[in-house]
Design a protein that fits this description.
This protein has 251 residues and is an alpha/beta fold. The chain has helices at residues 42-50, 83-93, 98-109, 124-137, 157-170, 180-186, 204-215, 228-234, 236-242, and strands at residues 2-12, 15-26, 31-36, 57-61, 66-70, 142-146, 172-176, 189-194, 197-201.
Length: 251
């Protein structure tokens, strides 16, 4: 269990209030969707869970070995480090064997051509080619995902999908999906973040029904939003991510 003990958290100057004296136990053997409206603070909750951000008040107790944020920026990275140096530092930080981590990354992400590159010079695609196999190579018992867990490298998405299935078959996950239906495709339970509260639901179906009927209508679309069908026509990867859960985005 990951325990929130009277946790209060906000961005700055008490606004916006993300969590208001929340006490909650998150089971680390479940696949948990993190549902919330745009701007509700889901990324902040992810960082509280894996310890990247301390709460303003209260305590988060995490006896499980929690991952860094998958889909987020690299952890504690100096842009002047080579990829190999960065992996060595992260392997040491999480108690893994460097050579085994590198071998895993080469097998799953074809990382060898990138090992001598500087972290600060990697493209987004190359960064996901490094960070996803690195996350799945490390001995985590609970993964936290903020965004796309399959990365931006199109030719590796099928391999990363298979790897994701393997890992969450052995471990738990907290997933802040870019769209709720993607969370429903991956998860079996959920927490809903709203108005300073974080509530756990044992059933993803029940949580999705409440979110879609009570919260989703409150969300205003971004003024600059492009029609999703138009976006899918020009971006094959977006089309894949926009499909309904039954289309098998993950499984």
């Amino acid at each position: 269990m990951i325990l929130f003990d009277r946790v209060t958290h906000y961005a700055r100057d008490n606004k916006p209030m993300i969590l208001d004296e929340v006490s909650l136990a998150l089971p680390t053997d479940r696949r948990i969707a993190l549902l919330g409206l745009r701007g509700s603070g889901r990324s902040s909750v992810i960082r509280l869970v894996n310890g990247l951000t301390p709460p303003r008040h209260g305590t988060v107790i995490r006896p499980a070995r929690v991952s860094f944020t998958i889909g987020g920026p690299p952890v504690a990275v100096s842009p002047k480090l080579t990829v190999a140096q960065y992996v060595q530092d992260i392997a040491r930080l999480y108690g893994a064997i460097y050579r085994e981590v590198i071998d895993f990354m080469v097998e799953w992400g074809d990382a060898e051509p990138l090992l001598k590159r500087l972290m600060g010079k990697l493209t987004n695609v190359e960064r996901s080619q490094i960070m996803l196999p690195l996350a799945y190579a490390l001995p985590f018992s609970f993964y936290v995902v903020d965004g796309d867990p399959l990365g931006a490298a199109p030719k590796f998405r099928d391999k990363f999908r298979e790897l994701l299935k393997q890992r969450i078959g052995e471990s738990g996950v907290l997933y802040a999906a870019p769209k709720p239906h993607l969370a429903a495709a991956l998860c079996d339970s959920a927490v809903i973040l709203h108005d300073g509260d974080l509530v756990f639901f044992d059933s993803i179906t029940e949580a999705m029904e409440i979110f879609e009927s009570e919260l989703a209508p409150l969300e205003k679309p971004k003024p600059e939003e492009v029609d999703e069908d138009d976006l899918a026509r020009v971006d094959p990867r977006t089309r894949e991510l926009s499909e309904a859960p039954e289309a098998g985005v993950f499984f």
